[in-house]
Design brief:
CATH superfamily: Isochorismatase-like
Number of domains: 1
Oligomer: single chain
Helix content: 25-40%
Largest sheet: 6 strands, parallel
Strand content: 5-15%
Structural class: alpha/beta
Strand order of the largest sheet: 3-2-1-4-5-6
Radius of gyration: 18 Å
């Protein structure tokens, strides 16, 4: 199964000013996160960011903040290690238009199900995710998204922990729970699919 840019959303977790200096291979990981944001912008993939306890750990790094701003990403300030309890999963689901019917259509009698309006935008169920620390906030967010029946693709070269061992343990656990492990270049070329894609050269330029 390949990634499809029309079915994806990108989530970038906690690349914060007081975290990144302690991260293993931090500069390389941050550069890949910025690449992912700019690739998503070029291909019109929705982007979301998170910041863990920003009053204590600072905002996301300036270069990532700039990229997130350019692609009009929503950034979630959170206190839970997983971003889901603080609202990320709700952001990733398409909103419903207001209607007189209440609740999920599936919970209603069959003759009333048509009263529930369709989403304002189509569901994008494939979540491409990367972030810090891989064995804490990234791991817990990804596992909860899997529990909520999203498809989760973890971009390994855009993830970091303070130690290589913790990062790799997170990857092992994520793969064992059904997440797909990919790299930044894998995401780029699967979103493009062809050298004839109109955005091939701009995206290729980001990863050279």
């Amino acid at each position: 199964m390949l990634l499809d840019d029309q079915e994806c959303q990108l989530v970038l977790v906690d690349y914060q000013t007081r975290l990144m200096p302690a991260m293993f291979e931090g500069p390389w990981v941050l550069a890949n996160a910025v690449r992912l944001a700019r690739m998503a912008q070029a291909l019109q993939v929705p982007v979301f960011g998170t910041e863990q306890n920003p009053e204590k750990l600072g905002e996301n790094m300036p270069e990532l903040r700039a990229a997130l701003s350019e692609c009009q990403a929503r950034v979630l300030a959170k206190m839970s290690f997983s971003a889901c309890p603080d609202g990320l999963a709700d952001w990733l689901r398409p909103p419903q238009r207001a209607a007189g019917a209440v609740g999920n259509a599936r919970s209603l009698p069959r003759h009333l199900q048509k009263a529930v309006p369709p989403p304002d935008r189509p569901q994008r169920n494939s979540i491409v995710i990367a972030g810090c620390e891989a064995h804490v906030c990234l791991l817990q967010t990804a596992l909860e998204l899997l529990e909520q029946e999203f498809e989760v693709w973890v971009v390994t070269d855009a993830c970091a922990s303070r130690t290589e061992r913790s990062r790799d343990a997170a990857f092992d656990r994520l793969a064992g729970n059904g997440a797909e492990l990919v790299t930044t270049e894998m995401v780029a070329f699967e979103w493009l699919r062809s050298a004839e894609h109109p955005m091939f050269k701009p995206v290729q330029g980001l990863i050279k």
